[in-house]
Amino acid sequence: MAELGTMRVKSGLAEMLKGGVIMDVVNAEHARTAEDAGAVAVMALERVPADIRRDGGVARMSDPEMIREIQEAVTIPVMAKVRIGHFVEAQILQELEIDYIDESEVLTPADTAHHVDKWKFTVPFVCGCTNLGEALRRIAEGAAMIRTKGEAGTGDVVNAVTHMRAVFGGIRRLGALDPDELYTEAKNLQAPYELVRWVAENGRLPVVTFTAGGIATPADAALCMQLGADGVFVGSGIFKSGDPSRRAKAIVEATTHFNDPEVLARVSAGLGEPMVGISASTLDPSQLLETRGW
Amino acid sequence: MNEGPRIGVLALQGNFREHAAMLRRLGVDVVEVRKVEQLEGLDGLVIPGGESTTFMRLMRLYGLEEALRSFDAPILGTCAGLIVLDRDHLDLVDVSVERNGYGRQVASFEADLDLEGDAVPLRGVFIRAPRVRDAGPHVEVLAEHGGEPVLLRQGRFLVASFHPELTDDTRVHERFLDLVREETGVRA
Fold it and tell me: How far is the C-alpha of B63 from the C-alpha of B42, rounded, in Å?
């Protein structure tokens, strides 16, 4: 008998995306540009994070019609975002046969205490995190893929780096603990003991871990890969730049050849204007997206 | 003691690490292949799962498309690796394949497969899997699902529409290494 929606099948798709770039797109034309550039998947949304930040207001799941257009435009997987805790938006995306749901802090949260119970869905979920405890809570809720958060829509990679260091450093520290110290550490991390022990024994998260938020150049992408990410999400950084197609291709090559400075130097040359960006340290705490998530 | 074979894993993108880990468990010396020169001296190559459009673009850019056409050792292709080898792409294996032939991710599944010449079933994990629509007369079917071929062999090529690297079962990789041993015997 064929079994659908097992954890192996859900996390398996994330395994296939490793070493790749997932690009935010707002229409079918962007989606085709991303696919031609070698993106492994696209994230369909109405506004890229930079525009959500500029426009303010409530950011919600995208119009299903726009998602369908993007699904028809490309053959690579199509992902889409739901608000944190908005399980009905997730039911709608599952009905649309989206390939991955991102329960995302980039949209305005629908619940200030609870995330979606992701075990109830056949479609896999990816969730953001700023530290190891948050990652493990999302995995306990059924997330089949994790992305460390950056500060989306800024073009500033600093917060992505901070959170990757927090997660990967946290994993290394767990490995140094004595087994009988893991119980209290689970309490400190506010995460299930079984997951904490698994991570301590295996030296990694049990699911694929991408990074996102503020990646704007091939060098940013390679930096994230060298720090230990399995792949990268690029949001505003591509379609808010001067030459999106060229930049997209360069970021794809940099993600594959992240340890090869000769390739990185070549693909970084002559890309035109990067997205202008906002220094994340100048943002008021109330404007931060990364602190959303419980 | 003979040294283990030296096998490349195409590492442009996708599930190359799991293939490499499985091959190492079987005593293989594994090389990650991102550039043409890394194909030199290999006894075999694995083309893993991933996104075939991404593979094809990066292969073309780095001259790997031509290099693989003239590569003469055994190749194991899984999922996207099967697509890369089919009639519409490198045309090295005589099969026609429909990409995402079972549907989108909600239709991804796992199922037990009867492996030719083996009484114990093999767990097949199918992720947005390609579907083999037609196979030429020299292609041998080693496993089927729902009456359709999912593991096939043609000479020095072994291809699967599922992901043997996502389970702990090493039998598909062992069959590939048998092919490698046969071929290195012939070439030596």
Answer: 17
Q: Which residues of B are marked as active site?
A: 79, 163, 165
CB contact A38 to B (< 8 Å): yes
| Residue A174 and residue A196 in contact, taking contact as beta carbons nearer than 8 Å | yes
Fold of B6-187: Rossmann fold (3.40.50)
Q: What's the rounded Cα separation, in Å, for the pair B79 and B92?
A: 15
A20, A77, A257: residue with CB nearest B128? A77
Query: Do the chains contact at A19 and B104, CB–CB below 8 Å?
Result: no
Q: Which residue has the tokens 């492996």?
A: B115
Nearest CA in chain B to A71: B104
**Tens of each residue's pLDDT in chain A, 294 residues:** 799 999 999 999 999 999 999 999 999 999 999 999 999 999 999 888 888 888 888 999 999 999 999 999 999 999 999 999 999 999 999 999 999 999 999 999 999 999 999 999 999 999 999 999 999 999 999 999 999 998 888 889 999 999 999 999 999 999 999 999 999 999 999 999 999 999 999 999 999 999 999 999 999 999 999 999 999 999 888 998 999 999 999 999 999 999 999 999 999 999 998 888 888 888 888 888 888 888
The Cα–Cα gap between B6 and B24 comes to: 10
